[in-house]
């Protein structure tokens, strides 16, 4: 399956490969032991591609002639180095799995083990083709002796090392009777630790734990627990390994079982406290840790974790940003959540419905992200263009797939989301019930539910972008205009507030794409995610005659091609251009004269007109054009409004109308901070100071304007 983002298609297999490899490997900087690699490879098998392929013919050369001196050992391979003229003698020690390449583990005579990736071995079968094969045990089975020429040693996806071979003709299967390698001694090496009982598994797990290989340690402890389910030491050890992997839910479960068998076990209680803290159940964590501290007065590590938990609890209550007002709002949130619910909405699936009257600017929810990816994490740098967004989508899909691999109990949370797959209820229930990875579902759910980080609405430099998945906010449906809520991201928290009073029974809707995007732009996105929008704007644009549409398109084309290039450049503005632009704006408005408040297609043109007047020195006219645009569209809250306000502030200061500039500054300040802080009251003089403390962090540009205006 291909996952289409706006700019690129992503192969699902690539995503699964990425996710699985990352769940099974750590950092490549250290060579892995045979056992680690074997364990990791076993995990790969879970989700490898089970399709049948046309496989390249296997190259067998009975009369192989090679200079044995040119054999290279795995331990001598260097990353990004092609050992020209050398060959690798190895034997297969695992079955092959099909990811991008065919991947298996091989060992060399010295006993070194590494992943071998064979590229270009498979093709999708064409219709009627008969020589198709599954990639199974029979494909280069375990024990097969190989000579591989022209290899390279690379760091592949997600920082794992591979021995790469691109050409199937370079891979030669060596007959076991071949005399050429008679002198080569195979250190049939695996010093098998004999494991007989739970204690052996514990020791073995501890060794892996000590080398920070927590995944394998967990496997070993689990084997021991299978033999002795009531072994509290094993349960405690596994809980600690889970904690190291941030798998707090699993850690919590183990400590619960351990405490059931040994209620006074201090280690289990301590780890339960840590797990609860990781799960953000700060109150329960604090209770347990306080109790423990009473029993073990003077224990500094308990004291430290207790203090840390109390601090996190405090921060959490304060919205993580030391924000006292949010404490109150959390109370409000619990009330609102009780009073709103997800219900069926005609023609839209599920949606949030207000179960009581809700005042303007009420915090509806603060939701912690299921997962967020910032563009710098996906791409190495902050990138705000489509390429960045696409990488974020890829990275987010990989991270979520990986999270579900590691913690499958989260699957139902994701699988309950709208997916656009049109599955029957039965089919869907089956997927939800199974808690296994269903990549097609994950991808489709993401396409329909991801949020773009909207810092750019506030941050005029467009510095931070990213994508994330929030579960509860995913139930908000869309409206291009007249939405009654808006969302705001801070870190991985998403705040949703009402932007006007809402009556009981009304649907709570947000805006996925606002009306400053043209109808065509909105449509191409909304159709892609199955939204058939019935907002006033979409209805109007659908009902306009072809003739009107054509005329609007002509006017906008004339603006973009002939007016904008002249008027937007300093020193090239002439009165005749201004006149022409005014005529275009007037005609565009006239074409929508029945709906003056829906003439968003003139916003950008009005801004250009204001700029042109500024250029010819008519500042007052520029100001009045911008104010008119503000008045017209402020109630619809399109994002462009913020930029218009910034322009108004700038012109007012230029005209030395500082009082007026301050008035507009307060408007923009509130637009920026009220989504987080809630409604600010003018009669409380300290509001501005409080607001500026926040903008200092989230949008320092505002503070420099405040300084220029002498407001602070
Ligand atoms: C983020 S989900 C919203 C919750 C969704 N309705 C559900 O049942 O889970 C997005 C999906 O909801 C539906 N949707 C959202 N807004 C809509 C609208 N204005 N009209 C029709 N369908 C809408 C579309 O199917 C869209 O892909």
TrEMBL record:
Coiled coil: none annotated. PANTHER family: TPR DOMAIN PROTEIN (AFU_ORTHOLOGUE AFUA_5G12710) (PTHR47643). This is Uncharacterized protein. It comes from Rhizophagus irregularis (strain DAOM 181602 / DAOM 197198 / MUCL 43194) (Arbuscular mycorrhizal fungus).
């Amino acid at each position: 399956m291909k996952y289409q983002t706006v700019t690129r298609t992503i192969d699902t297999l690539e995503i699964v490969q990425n996710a699985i490899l990352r769940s099974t490997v750590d950092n490549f900087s250290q060579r892995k032991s045979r056992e680690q690699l074997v364990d990791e490879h076993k995990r790969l098998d879970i989700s490898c591609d089970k399709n049948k392929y046309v496989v390249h013919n296997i190259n067998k050369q009975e009369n192989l002639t090679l200079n044995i001196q040119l054999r290279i050992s795995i331990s001598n391979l260097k990353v990004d180095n092609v050992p020209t003229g050398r060959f690798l003698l190895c034997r297969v020690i695992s079955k092959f799995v099909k990811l991008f390449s065919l991947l298996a583990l091989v060992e060399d005579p010295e006993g070194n083990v590494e992943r071998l990736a064979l590229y270009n071995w498979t093709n999708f079968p064409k219709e009627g083709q008969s020589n198709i094969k599954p990639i199974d045990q029979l494909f280069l089975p375990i024990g097969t002796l190989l000579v591989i020429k022209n290899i390279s040693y690379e760091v592949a996806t997600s920082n794992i090392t591979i021995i790469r071979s691109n050409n199937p003709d370079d891979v030669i299967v060596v007959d076991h009777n071949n005399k050429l390698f008679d002198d080569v001694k195979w250190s049939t090496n695996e010093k098998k630790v004999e494991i007989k009982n739970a204690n052996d598994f514990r020791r073995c797990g501890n060794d892996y734990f000590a080398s920070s290989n927590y995944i394998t340690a967990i496997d070993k402890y689990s084997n021991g627990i299978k033999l002795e389910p009531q072994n509290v030491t094993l349960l405690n050890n596994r809980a600690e390994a889970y904690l190291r992997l941030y798998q707090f839910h699993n850690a919590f479960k183990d400590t619960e079982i351990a405490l059931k068998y040994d209620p006074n076990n201090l280690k289990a209680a301590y780890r339960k406290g840590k797990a609860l803290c990781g799960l953000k159940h700060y109150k329960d964590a604090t209770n347990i840790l306080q109790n423990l501290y009473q029993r073990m007065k003077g224990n500094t590590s308990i004291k430290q974790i207790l203090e840390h938990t109390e601090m996190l609890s405090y921060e959490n209550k304060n919205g993580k940003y030391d924000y006292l007002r949010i404490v109150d709002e959390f109370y409000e949130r619990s009330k609102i959540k009780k009073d709103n619910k997800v219900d069926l909405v005609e023609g839209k699936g599920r949606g949030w419905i207000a179960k009581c009257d809700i005042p303007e600017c009420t915090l509806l929810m603060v939701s912690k992200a299921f997962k967020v990816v910032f563009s710098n994490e996906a791409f190495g740098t902050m990138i705000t263009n489509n390429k960045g967004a696409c990488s974020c989508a890829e990275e987010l899909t990989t991270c979520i797939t990986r999270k579900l691999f590691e913690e499958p109990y989260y699957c139902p949370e994701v699988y309950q989301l709208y997916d656009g797959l049109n599955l029957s209820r039965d089919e869907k229930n089956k997927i939800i019930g199974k808690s296994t990875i269903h990549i097609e579902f994950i991808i489709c759910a993401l396409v329909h539910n991801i949020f773009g980080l909207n810092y750019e609405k506030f941050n005029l430099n467009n510095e931070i972008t990213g994508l994330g998945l929030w579960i509860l906010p995913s139930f908000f449906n869309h409206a291009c205009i007249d939405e009654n809520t808006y969302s705001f991201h801070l870190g991985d928290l998403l705040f949703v507030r009402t932007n006007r009073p809402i009556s009981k029974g009304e649907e709570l809707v947000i805006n996925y794409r606002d009306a400053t995007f043209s109808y065509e732009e909105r449509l191409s996105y909304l159709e892609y995610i199955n939204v058939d929008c019935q907002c006033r704007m979409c209805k109007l644009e659908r009902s306009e005659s072809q003739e009107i549409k054509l005329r609007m398109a002509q006017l906008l084309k004339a603006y973009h091609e002939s007016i904008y290039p002249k008027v937007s450049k300093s020193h090239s503005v002439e009165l005749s251009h201004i006149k022409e632009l005014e005529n275009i704006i007037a005609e565009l408005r006239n074409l929508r004269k029945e709906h003056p408040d829906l003439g968003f297609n003139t916003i950008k043109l009005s801004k250009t007109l204001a700029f042109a007047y500024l250029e010819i020195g008519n500042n007052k006219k520029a100001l009045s054009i911008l104010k008119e645009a503000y008045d017209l569209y402020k109630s619809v809250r399109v994002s462009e409004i913020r930029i218009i306000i910034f322009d108004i502030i700038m012109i007012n200061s230029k005209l030395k109308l500082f009082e007026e500039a301050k008035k507009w500054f307060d408007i923009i300040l509130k637009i920026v901070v009220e989504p987080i802080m809630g409604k600010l009251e003018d009669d409380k003089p300290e509001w501005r100071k409080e607001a500026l403390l926040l903008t200092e962090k989230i949008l320092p540009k505002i503070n420099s304007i405040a300084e220029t205006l002498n407001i602070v």
